[in-house]
Amino acid sequence: MASTLKLILFLLLSFHIFSLVSSHRHHPLDSLTPSEFTLVRTIVNKTYPSSNLNITFQYIGLDEPDKPIILSWLSNPKSKPPPRRAFVIARLDKQSHEIIVDLSTSVIVSDKVYHGHGYPLLTLDEQSAAVELPQKYEPFIESIKKRGLNLSEVVCSTFTVGWFGELKSKRVLKLLCFYIDGTANLYARPVEGITLVVDLDEMKIVEYNDRLIVPVPKAEGTEYRESKQKPPFGPRLNGAALVQPDGPGFKIDGHAVSWANWKFHLGFDVRAGPIISLASIYDLEKQKYRQVLYRGFISEMFVPYMDPTEEWYYKTFFDSGEFGFGQSAVSLKPLADCPANAVFLDAYYASSDGTPVKISNAFCIFENHAGNIMWRHTELEIPGENVSDIIVIVVVLFEQVVVLVDNFMVLQITEVRPDVSLVVRMVATVGNYDYIIDWEFKPSGSIKLGIGLTGILEVKGVAYTHTDQIKENVYGTLLAENIIGVYHDHFLTYYLDLDVDGDDNSFVKNNLETIKVTNHNSPRKSYWTVVSETAKTESDARIQFGLKPVELVVVNPNKKTKVGNNVGYRLIPGSATRPLLSYNDYPQIRGAFTNNNVWVTPYNKSEKWAGGLFVDQSQGDDTLVVWSLRNRKIENKDIVLWHTVGFHHVPCQEDFPVMPTLSGGFELRPTNFFDSNPVLKTRPPNLVHWPNCTN
């Protein structure tokens, strides 16, 4: 009965949802459409018609117009939009081509061969082809037989090989395999000791090792599917229904979203996943929208594991540049991944042959009524008239409470505003891990960027069944019999092109410094104050959290509040996590953009990917670190803030067999951006009166 009511509620809300999404003409920052992917495929294939050449499309995405062109068009949006172009990375004759296609003229504008280090994004198609190879490879079949395993229950998965000082290497990846007999949790049952190397250009196994035999962990206790669980069960949580009689409070026009005092553009990229652009907030006093964020997305995610042994040392992944957050996006499940009041949007990317692939329900957008408080205050006025013979009486009158305490009348005033926010959500499943990516917009002007880590741990099969048996470093935690959860990190680097009330901004470090009181004018011996420092060049803006107390603000030095402060937005970070690998370790050379928690660079359209454009087997020579070495001027310039969010993950038994969500993130918060509290006059949501309900 409860599930039926949920379904009815979901269908009723869907009626409102369909009316939210309206038709529109192309916005210059719109993601490529299925027809545009098809057009790109046709144009490129026509340019290289020879049947001897096997063309694969590793990346197709929007070649966004230069920022000044977009800003010029925004000043007159009824004018003709700039031409639509696509940026393509294709593999052709074992070479990587960077191609720009003009979609309005169906012409290839440029085509150059990349000769540097590294390879492009892996496609799902080539990974799927690679994992099928072991099933017909005789040495592998013999190894499986030797272990007494059923070949039909063995599943293999792809792993990038990294870079460890080689001058040059072929485009290869490694395969590791798992045993699914008796469980859907394949990553919990690794077949240790077997490693296969596949040449992706030749699509054949070029190296094979069977180094040792380790017991395969048991299937028992690894299932996470609800239908497979056995008693005793945990408590059933009570459900709750969110009803919006007038439908959701936001509108979607193509990719443009408007809600409360916010408007922004939502895009999708096969590598980055969600892209938020042109976020502006309405200033009630100034009676206009004001710029906050030109463009923001996850630029890269670095996931190094801490096991230096033969089967594990190379596991140092770049989830965005090697596997693609967008390509790894999964369809969201209504009423589970997203609440009943959510609106769902599809996304598209191109497969390796260029044909469009649809991800249904890739995004959900919903108003979040989480029971939080936007702001509140209770005021106790000065006691008034003496009232005899009465100890305590409470009289409620509107928002005022008259309290008579100890024969004195006190007027108590309470004002509260419930908080509501707008959330844009996507989930990317990269191998064993599921990443919940949230952008949350608040009426107060804050943007909260959240990341949730869940899914299955990357585990290692061992002979140990109890910690008492372990006499050596196993580089992780014994989670269950024969299973080690290996220590590892997650570092997400965000690209944030903040345009705070305009393009030209500065980066200010408000250092909190202790001042000693040396005279006798005060009984205090110390206090702290703010000493502001404006970064002149890129080197001034490299920040490692935890070294000294500081508040970081992006300000517009050309705009001031009524009382004279520079308008700004402050970065409020989460945990102060930094890499622990040596700076000269090969994985850290590639992931050196995580050495600082904050970088600031001048805007450059080509500088989007913190780990470089070609990340697979890269050598760290085209990264945020290298660009920043130019030490360019950043004061009162169009600047980009790069912020890295980190997790050191020491696995524990509660993370097994599936991991409860571990959350992190940060906030971009207005700081002297408004002349006063922007939600002072925000009206609370209308009350919904349920029939047959009491107060």
TrEMBL record:
Residues 242-680 form the Copper amine oxidase catalytic domain. Its cofactor is Cu cation. Gene3D superfamilies: 3.10.450.40, Copper amine oxidase, catalytic domain. Residues 27-112 form the Copper amine oxidase N2-terminal domain. Topaquinone (TPQ) is generated by copper-dependent autoxidation of a specific tyrosyl residue. GO terms for molecular function: copper ion binding; primary methylamine oxidase activity; quinone binding. GO terms for biological process: amine metabolic process. Transmembrane segments: none annotated. Its EC number is 1.4.3.-. Contains 1 topaquinone per subunit. Residues 120-216 form the Copper amine oxidase N3-terminal domain. The active site is at residues 319, 433. Keywords: Copper, Disulfide bond, Metal-binding, Oxidoreductase, Signal, TPQ. Pfam families: Cu_amine_oxid (PF01179), Cu_amine_oxidN2 (PF02727), Cu_amine_oxidN3 (PF02728). The modification 2',4',5'-topaquinone is found at residue 433. PROSITE patterns: COPPER_AMINE_OXID_1, COPPER_AMINE_OXID_2. It comes from the Eukaryota. Homodimer. Belongs to the copper/topaquinone oxidase family. This is Amine oxidase. It comes from Castanea mollissima (Chinese chestnut).
